[in-house]
Batch of 2 targets.
Target 1
Amino acid sequence: MANKLYVVGIGPGDQAYLTARARRALEDAQVLVGYTVYVGLVSGMFPEKETYTTPMRREIDRCRWALEAAAGGKTVALVCSGDAGVYGMAGPVLQLAPEWPEVEIEVVPGVTAALSGAAVLGAPIGHDFCVISLSDLLTPWEVIENRLRCAAQGDFSICLYNPASHKRSDYLQKACDILLAAGADPETVCGYVRSIGREGEEAAILPLKELRDAKLDMFTTVFVGSSTTLAEHGRMITPRGYERKRDLCGS
Ligand code: SAH
């Protein structure tokens, strides 16, 4: 009996972003489990494999189903977009795992949207940065507001996940207003990337005062620069500080 569950981050979409280790885990699995869209991104590579898909917001059902299938003797891959542990299924699976002690769990990392999106824009997170999700489905909004304020006060570059949805169309605007009130310059260089690594990928660089009014959706990752972030030749760059050391050749 295999009793094996891989929790696999598949990257932002295109197979080119799938790591060799993630591919091996998917190859090894008999069943691919996950949100319909993510399983759809990889099932084409393995048309012979059994799949079990659930709609969005059924995360815990999905984890339980995957653990149950692995406990039944199958090798299962629970597929997550980006990285499995960044707003992904690795945490919930490991929290539920004690109920299925016979299942061996392996977390396989993937390229999270902060990294794949940053590469599209240039180097926006080249220095200290933080990642904040604007989704208040599982986190009280006051906690999110406080983290935004602290990030602005700490002058971090910030990656915003879940910047909006149908029900939360003004959250990005609220977030920008909090950053501005906490002292961020309205000219702070910002950017966003929609559908990273997928068909129709699009990106833009714009100042914070304009990001505030951008109409973005949940398939977008937003980057707010720090006070040192630059827009140069169409790229967003947060310098590492070599200029100050007069040594631009370091790595
Ligand atoms: N585990 C995922 C994050 C899931 S939260 C990861 O590590 O990337 C969902 C949010 O991630 C989205 O609202 C969006 O902000 C971001 N995201 C995930 N994939 C994306 C993609 N292909 N393009 C743009 N943003 C993406």
Note: The radius of gyration is 20 Å.
Target 2
Amino acid sequence: MKKITINDLIKWKQEGRKFASSTAYDASFGQLFEQQEMPVILVGDSLGMVLQGESSTLPVTVEDIAYHTRCVRAGTPNSLLMADMPFMSYATPEQACENAGKLMRAGANMVKLEGGDWLIDTVKMLTERAVPVCAHLGLTPQSVNIFGGFKVQGREQEKADRMVRDALALQEAGAQIVLLECVPQELAARITEVLDVPVIGIGAGNVTDGQILVMHDMLGIAANYMPKFSKNFLAETGDIRKAITKYIDDVASGAFPDEAHTIA
Ligand code: KIV
């Protein structure tokens, strides 16, 4: 796979070419994904749940993400590698700069932050200092205690309108990707249309420019839990490489997510 940059994703958005992405946490899976031409990989703080067995992402530290970013980067020199900024690691713009520096030095090409317009100064500060930012909106799992659970966001008109405004403001502040998690498909379509930057969705329907899945869900690794919007591609193919290729192809053709894996 050739080296993927944000410019490729912008071009694909303009061409209407949909792309897949996945989380990864180690060099072996990073390499496997790169061999199957997965263009974007996220070292997600979901590692707190799927690797560490925690009930939320809150216990994850900057050191955890930096360690796994280094591991994944070793296996995937060419993907666009995003690293999650963990809970409370960007409470102020200064903290964000210090901690984002650690993740960029570990090999990330971009950092991902959860939150709306309160992040504008932080996004400006990071991007002006050459740290590319992905802004995560919708169900932001670090806010699970504010939301009272892992719940769909943006169903009410006023909240949907606010999310559109936040997405535009974050783009204006310098965010180069917006990630939408667990929002109604109609809202995801609205945000994808108004933004110039690529929008990656999870649980947001097949209307976004890209899709992302937690790799443990995509491969059906968690025995007793599967989010409604996710799909076990390994069950269908019986082979890890074929499962990854099927996921990438189904995203590209718009076959995934289908109606059964979409939040109305
Ligand atoms: O941490 C993570 O894996 C994520 C994805 C669910 C997008 O943020």
Note: The mean pLDDT is 97.
